[in-house]
Design a protein that fits this description.
0% of the residues lie in helices and 52% in strands. The chain is mainly beta. It is elongated.
Length: 107
């Protein structure tokens, strides 16, 4: 999850999981921060979820950026990826028409 922050004075970033402070323990959750633009103090803060499983589905993650002048927040709700099925698995014959049906299912 990426949270880009820009501010002067410099900003601090905190992450929440379902309204509770997220412990960045280095095994399940950790954050990287890179300078995107040093001139205007822009940072790219990435929350990494190691071994993400189905138990994160429906979980709300919140990024709060703050400095001495105030704060702003952004929210993301984790959803599972869609399932794509292509059928029938025909083998096309050179020079002949064929069709495929692509079905996308959201969990």
């Amino acid at each position: 999850l990426t949270c880009i922050s820009t501010g002067s004075p410099a900003t601090n970033v905190t992450w929440m999981r379902d309204g509770q402070p997220l412990t960045l323990n280095g095994s399940t959750y950790w954050m990287t921060q890179t300078v995107a633009n040093r001139t205007v103090s822009t940072y790219e803060n990435v929350l990494i979820i190691n071994r993400a499983m189905s138990d994160i589905v429906g979980i709300t993650y919140n990024c709060t950026v703050m400095n001495a002048l105030g704060h702003v927040s952004g929210t993301l709700i984790a959803y599972p990826p869609p399932t794509v099925t292509i059928s029938p698995p025909e083998i096309p014959v050179a020079g002949e028409s064929f069709s495929l049906t692509c079905t996308v299912t959201l969990a």
